Amino acid sequence: MAGDGIEEGLESASSPLLPGEKSTSSSATRNQHYITPVLVCSTLVALCGSFTYGCSVGYSSPAESGIMEDLGLSVSAYSFFGSIVTIGGMVGAILSGKMADLVGRRGTMWACQIICMAGWLAIAFAKKAWCLDIGRFLVGVAIGILTYVVPVYISEITPKNLRGRFTSANQLLVCCGFAVTYFVGSIVSWRALSLIATIPSILQIVCLFFVPESPRWLAKLGRQKEFEASLQRLRGIESDISEEAVDIRDAIEILKQTSAETRTLELFQRRYAYVIIVGEGLILLQTFGGNSAVSYYLGTIFAKANVSTSSGPIIFALLQIPTSIATVLLMDSFGRRTLLMVSATTSCLCLFLVGLSFCFQESHNLKELTPILTLVGILVFDLAWKTTKNPELFLQKKFKTHLYINQHKFILEYLY
């Protein structure tokens, strides 16, 4: 079932203890594991999917002028090309859980990168607008699945004491892909950029043959020998995996029992109305927060604001990685609610500042301020938006574990 795969991934990523799961200092000490080469390599291979996602988000802006000029697209035609990736993403999000359960985490990533590479090649060799749109749609389907399966795979292969650090690399690699695409896109043509975007896909397709499958997925299917072999390979030959293996089996059994007892409809009980409205409202409103428009049309915004179309996007790209690191540090230092309030207010003020800067173009005395205010507004907006990327974490503090799992499944499948 799709729900089972989603539940396992979320439980292993960051959920509180499951009902009946015991936590003692002695067992925590026994479950301490160290970083092994296989664990690092497996994580890096999975993160190629995150890098691919970043490339797809960052592609539209640097490619805009070239595509419109070469293929003679109108603004509306290019807008459709830029936005169709989200339609593909919704399709991929709905398929992600069932696909990951059916063919495994590794097989899902492999299939997604085949689809993604086909999409990039369709864009690179497109002669007509419909070929561009098909390629963009395929990329969207692939990243819709990858955004689910990559963090789930990483959380399922890492031990508890290292899980937070490893899963945080997911967002960092998304920003790296975004930054590299912006930077390279200012140097090469849009067709060359599409071909370059296939590199992480090819790399992951090849390397997936050499990394182990998720132990949790194998255990769920009852493939005990493969489960223990995969876990042993990830933890090292000399490591004692007996305690962790028992914990994984127990957690899977509890999840199966919980899944049988609960349904998504339980989320609509009156006692959860406040949390549902606030939590889903935060996610839904964030979707209309303007980040996608800024990312997809950054080059056009800078051009109309008289910001250098070569240096502006490069500055924006170079700040992606440090701002992502700063975001992680801020999340650890402040409460979720405080951070959400400050970030939402800052985002609103920054977009207002950008809009105001365009109004200054009508004034002879103030029009010189437009480039500076636009650049500052966009950069600060991007930093503020990154700190509000996970409003669903608010819900994790309010729900019981099993209801939070079903709630997050609801978000993934219907509010992508």
From TrEMBL:
Bilayer-spanning residue ranges: 34-53, 73-95, 107-125, 137-154, 166-184, 190-211, 272-294, 314-331, 338-358
Q: Extract the InterPro entries matched here.
A: MFS_dom, MFS_ERD6/Tret1-like, MFS_sugar_transport-like, MFS_trans_sf, MFS_Trehalose_Transporter, Sugar/inositol_transpt, Sugar_transporter_CS
Name of the protein described by the UniProt record: Major facilitator superfamily (MFS) profile domain-containing protein
Subcellular location, in the record's words?
Cell membrane
Residues of the Major facilitator superfamily (MFS) profile domain? 42-416
Name a GO molecular-function annotation.
sugar transmembrane transporter activity
Q: What is its main location?
A: membrane
Its keywords, alphabetically, are: Cell membrane, Membrane, Sugar transport, Transmembrane, Transmembrane helix, Transport
Membrane topology, record value: Multi-pass membrane protein
